[in-house]
Here is the input.
Amino acid sequence: MSPRLMLVTAGRVLRQVRHDRRTLALLLVVPCVLMGLLAWIYADTPVFDSIGAPLLGMFPFLVMFLVTSIATLRERQSGTLERLLTLPLAKADLVGGYAIAFGALATVQALVAGTFAVYALGLDVAGQDWLLIVVAVVDALLGTALGLFLSAFAATEFQAVQFLPAFVLPQFLLCGLLVPRDRLPDVLHWVSDVLPLSYAVDAMRTITVDASAGADVAKDVAIILGFVLVLVGLGAATLRRRTD
Amino acid sequence: MLKNPPVGQPAIRVEGLRVVRGGRTVIPGLSLEVPHGQVVGLLGPSGCGKSTLMRSIVGVQKVAGGVVEVLGLPAGTEPLRHRIGYLTQAPSVYTDLTVRENLAYFAAVVGTPRSGTAREVARVVDMVDLGSHVDASVGALSGGQLSRVSLAAALVGAPDVLVLDEPTVGLDPVLRRDLWVIFRRLAADGATLLVSSHVMDEAVRCDRLLLMREGEFLADDTLAGVLASTGAADAEQAFLALVDQARDRAAAGGTTTSEVSS
Here is the structure.
């Protein structure tokens, strides 16, 4: 493993995104537009303040999951992955480089969306605003890590795109947004305990209702970051130099 | 260019290589030795196992059996990755980056120090004659230019062994001739080249020919040797004659042994 090659790879990935202005614009604007719509449809009701935070965690997560999956799949399909695997680049350098590049984009995206939600849309939560933005950033990182890991199992774009309904929407159903997790049937509650998005929503709900629950939020954030590290590690471990 | 040329050791050694893909035996058992500084042409129809053999040599192909060594080391092992250049059959570069950005990235990956990157990029760009397009986005280049960028990426870092899968496919005759001049020059400097092609007339450029069909070598000889043994006028005729001979042998009930050593 070489920190220099990891950073060089991250720089290359970011340069690719920079050449694609429209993608860059979509990355920054879409979560803000979605938050804006949410605020608008619930105008003059208290609903936005209660579900705004969990959804602020969700939107960057979804976008970063998709973008990362497709980007790594493209590396595989363009033959550049095969070339890189014959070169002195450790698998961890490649996956780590992608994680750093998309992690940086995820951070900027969540910062922009979070700042927009709090200061432009007036999202009002019991806890601290900066904590809300931190959790949004961590959720976006989670989307990136999940995309890095799962894209290894997609052979085509058709498969990669369907990983969203297959692996992300079940997490959405079970994360406590529709039915609080402690009111789910037992089996589903246990399942939701091992799904990373549950902790993202838990943290956001805690910030929404509780002004002094910093420790609970920190615990959820630590669990999510643990998922991020494990998923990135698995992404590097499942990459094979030799293929059929 | 060649760091510590090992005495008496072949640049590439393949022994009893067997590759099975999707339940089908693509290479039943192949042996090959390539000495340093040789330009070996790997010729044969599409689907005959050329790419699979090349992927085995660069260490990205799952193999079912046999030995593959490059510069005395097992194929695909870490110390080799600095010393082997691989050109995949389809151009494998980033179409959303410029030529310079692509090559600078690959230069960094093969360990070119930051201070030497610009010089190394200029060197390989010059070799493939893309100087006027160095800041163009690769996605905007023509097919021939695209394959030259991909070739330049394989030349970065001046590897000792070059495995080039159809480097001249889709290029015009002038460019093909120029590339072969480059390949000869690299070999003169001590590099070893394994170059595949399904264009038989490129045979005249090689020190040695491997005519391949269905995962086996029909011939392993110089062009002159192949022509003499078959009485054919050119490589294509020779190849067809060898295919017919192999078929006749198989029809006569013999096994199609295909070792013709040089």
Chain A touches chain B at residues 4-5, 8-9, 12, 15-16, 19-20, 78-80, 82-89, 241-244 (CB under 8 Å). Residues 165 and 171 of chain A are 10 Å apart (CA to CA). The mean pLDDT of chain A is 94.
